[in-house]
Write a sequence for this structure.
């Protein structure tokens, strides 16, 4: 207000000059037609002056009004109480207010950042850091929510200093003193930055942009989970606490993934004895004014296989856009190019783990908003066009039912009790909050069957039901490596860790325990005999992903030889991947045991190759992993491998990949095998054949970018194309333009066609996508920049002209 009052004379002079110019330029001959506007002009001038006066005197008036109110209350208190008592009550109230103001103005982010600035160097320091978890959590959360909780930063109120320099003619030192005083008055509303403030950072200064990102990264590295997951309720409360209803709704949508509404979900099941083909059809409706992307992370039974993906603008299947099976790297490159640069419709489903998948659909078109020129509110809001998605997969029966995709994570999409759900055109009841039921009951009784599929090139896959009472057992002394993930999230599984290590100790003659270490444990990764393990001395801190666990094991293993490697971990860590690791393929089967059956969203590609090419896999318990390991260690396994036979026990079936002559010799002993040929099982069998070849050709797959590796991957990819399936190396992408098809043709010939980059969960969220302007927006930006440049040039010329 002070600078404005100081400029009031100039402002009034300019105002009346404008009025005079308007009167001079007025066409008096048309006054008869324009006279009706004169009262409005006069009223407008009065309102302008009245508003200016109110703004100028408001701070003084408020001080006088509240001061007089306090004086009346003080006089009333003096008349009701003795003077000492009245003074004491007033003093106590003021002291309490000041104390509360000081206490509540303390900001914990400095302490949190300082504690995490230097990782501990000893276990004692790590335990001391662990005792400060509450303070670290509070400080990182305060920094993360700074844009919602504070109006600016200490040292960042530069506009006050500028106004006093320009309008009151203060020098730099004087205006700096005014700014400092202003910041002291509004200190509780300012964020105290951790790092030194850069000069000229503006009203919404740099720390409010950079430090929340840094806080989120530190939180994830220390607590082994994202800050939104760990502090969800507090984050939602903060982003919704704003005066703007529109901003609150948009922020809530972003945090709670409520941008896209799932209006309809249809499931169709086609049964084929002990296996079925399941189609999922979903219809999406955008709830925002920006283009959005649907993202699903889900898992399927390990033997299941995805067989199709389509997009459409309507229910008409004849008009939907079909998929194309493409090398995973080429498909990802094209998808990201189309979404982030051109915003053209694609869809992509890819495998990111032995049983984990990621599905992305873009774009769900925004709402159409029509604005009223005479109002700041929209005149009308029309729903954007719906987007249809179809996904098909094949799955073996499990206990007389058909497993459905298990949702691990979703982005931007939500559903509620009003979402229409159906199964084979009949209403389907789903638990509120669930994406899909866990499984669907089969229409008829299911009897496990034997299946045989022949492939070109002399290969065959034989699938046999395997009774639970005939599970293989390990009858030989084993040497096992047990790798323990000591991330912070593993603290919840401390009891299961002890039980799992006990099972491994009972199984093997020798168990070497590898204790991994994050940057916050204060000690390097170590190895010890299992007998020396003391669960009371284990500290769980920081975060690690599967790749880091395998790398630390490889660094400590040296020349030790094992029959199997069991990695005890949980379902976290995928978000920590930065794809900067080279993961070797171990010379023993690697079993990722996710305690509690909590599987991660996925793994990076090198980790998937290391797990599957080693002959291992993932399991929800040590018992499950031991059952599958027993088959590979049986007395006939070595002989079978020499004969080209690869077997695995998955989802209650024995899956065997073998040369045709081996199957023929088996058929001569059991003629019923030849009668079980089932071409409908080709998708299942092709997936199993690819996994078997990964194990058989592990040496070629371990040679990064070698010509032999590309040849091997091309052979595996050709099997996926012929059988129309998604595999660890082959993805499905839906394209809508001929230009996209030509671009994909080019990408599929590059040497990096199978190299896929790691992507963070929210990397392709709406905030990133909509930051890319449309072509007409680029033109508008160029015009605006040109106008600003012209205005600056003319302003400089006028200043030069007025100089003496």
């Amino acid at each position: 207000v002070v600078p404005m009052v100081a400029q009031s004379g100039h402002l009034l002079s300019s105002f009346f000059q404008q009025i005079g110019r308007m009167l001079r330029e007025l066409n008096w001959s048309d006054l008869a037609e324009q006279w009706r506007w004169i009262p409005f002009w006069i009223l407008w001038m009065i309102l302008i002056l009245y508003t200016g006066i109110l703004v100028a005197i408001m701070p003084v008036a408020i001080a006088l009004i509240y001061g007089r109110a306090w004086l009346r209350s003080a006089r009333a208190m003096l008349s009701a109480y003795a003077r000492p008592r009245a003074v004491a009550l007033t003093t106590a109230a003021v002291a309490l207010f000041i104390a509360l103001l000081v206490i509540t103005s303390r900001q914990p982010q400095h302490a949190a950042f300082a504690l995490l600035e230097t990782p501990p160097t000893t276990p004692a320091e790590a335990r001391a850091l662990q005792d400060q978890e509450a303070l670290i959590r509070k400080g990182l959360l305060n920094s993360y929510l700074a844009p919602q909780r504070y109006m600016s930063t200490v040292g960042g109120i530069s506009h006050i200093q500028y106004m006093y320099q320009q309008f009151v003619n203060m020098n730099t030192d004087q205006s700096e003193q005014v700014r400092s005083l202003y910041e002291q008055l509004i200190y509780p509303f300012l964020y105290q930055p951790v790092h030194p403030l850069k000069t000229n950072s503006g009203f919404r200064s740099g720390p409010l942009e950079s430090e929340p990102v840094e806080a989120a990264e530190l939180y994830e590295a220390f607590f082994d989970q994202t800050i939104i997951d760990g502090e969800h309720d507090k984050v939602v409360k903060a982003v919704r606490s704003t005066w703007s209803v529109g901003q609150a709704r948009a922020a809530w949508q972003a945090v709670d993934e409520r941008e896209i509404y799932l209006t309809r979900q249809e499931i169709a099941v086609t049964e084929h004895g002990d296996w079925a083909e399941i189609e999922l059809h979903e219809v999406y409706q955008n709830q925002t004014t920006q283009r959005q992307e649907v993202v699903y992370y889900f898992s399927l039974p390990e033997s299941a296989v995805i067989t199709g993906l389509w997009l459409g603008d309507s229910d008409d299947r004849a008009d939907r856009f079909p998929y194309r099976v493409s090398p995973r790297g080429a498909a990802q490159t094209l998808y990201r190019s189309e979404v982030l640069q051109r915003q053209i419709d694609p869809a992509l489903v890819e495998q990111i783990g032995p049983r984990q998948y990621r599905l992305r659909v873009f774009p769900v078109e925004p709402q159409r908003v029509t604005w009223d020129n005479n109002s700041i509110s929209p005149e009308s809001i029309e729903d954007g066009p719906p987007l249809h998605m179809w996904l098909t997969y094949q799955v073996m029966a499990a206990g007389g039912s058909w497993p459905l995709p298990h949702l691990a994570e979703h982005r931007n999409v939500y559903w509620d009790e009003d979402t229409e759900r159906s199964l084979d055109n009949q209403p389907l009841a789903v638990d509120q909050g669930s994406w899909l039921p866990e499984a669907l009951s089969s229409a008829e009784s299911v009897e496990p069957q034997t299946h045989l599929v022949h492939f070109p090139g002399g290969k065959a896959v034989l699938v046999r039901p395997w009774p639970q009472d005939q599970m293989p057992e390990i009858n030989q002394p084993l040497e096992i490596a047990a790798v323990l993930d000591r991330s912070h999230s593993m603290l919840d599984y401390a009891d299961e860790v002890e039980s799992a290590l006990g099972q491994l100790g009972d199984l093997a003659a020798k168990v070497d325990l590898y204790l991994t270490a994050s940057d916050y444990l204060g000690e390097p990764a170590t190895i010890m005999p299992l007998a020396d393990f003391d669960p009371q001395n284990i500290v769980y801190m920081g975060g690690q992903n599967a790749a880091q666990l395998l790398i630390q094991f490889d660094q400590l293993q040296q020349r030790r030889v094992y029959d199997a490697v069991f990695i005890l971990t949980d379902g976290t860590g995928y978000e920590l991947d930065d794809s900067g690791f080279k993961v070797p393929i171990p010379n023993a089967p690697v079993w990722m045991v996710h305690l509690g059956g909590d599987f991660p969203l996925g793994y990076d590609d090198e980790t998937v190759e290391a797990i599957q090419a080693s002959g291992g896999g993932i399991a929800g318990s040590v018992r499950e992993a031991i059952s599958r390991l027993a088959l590979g260690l049986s007395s006939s396994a070595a002989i079978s491998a020499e004969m080209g036979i690869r077997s695995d026990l998955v989802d209650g079936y024995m899956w065997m990949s073998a040369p045709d002559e081996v199957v023929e010799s088996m058929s001569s002993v059991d003629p019923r095998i030849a009668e079980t040929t089932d071409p409908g099982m080709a998708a299942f069998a092709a997936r199993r054949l690819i996994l078997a070849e990964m194990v058989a050709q592990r040496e070629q797959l371990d040679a990064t970018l070698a010509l032999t590796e590309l040849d091997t991957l091309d052979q595996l990819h050709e099997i996926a194309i012929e059988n129309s399936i998604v595999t660890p190396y082959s993805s499905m992408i839906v394209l809508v333009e001929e230009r996209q098809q030509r671009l994909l043709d080019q990408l599929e010939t590059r040497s990096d066609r199978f190299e896929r980059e790691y992507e963070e969960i929210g990397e392709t969220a709406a905030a990133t996508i909509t930051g890319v302007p449309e072509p007409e927006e680029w033109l508008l930006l160029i015009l605006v920049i040109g106008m600003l440049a012209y205005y600056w040039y003319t302003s400089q010329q006028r200043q030069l002209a007025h100089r003496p």
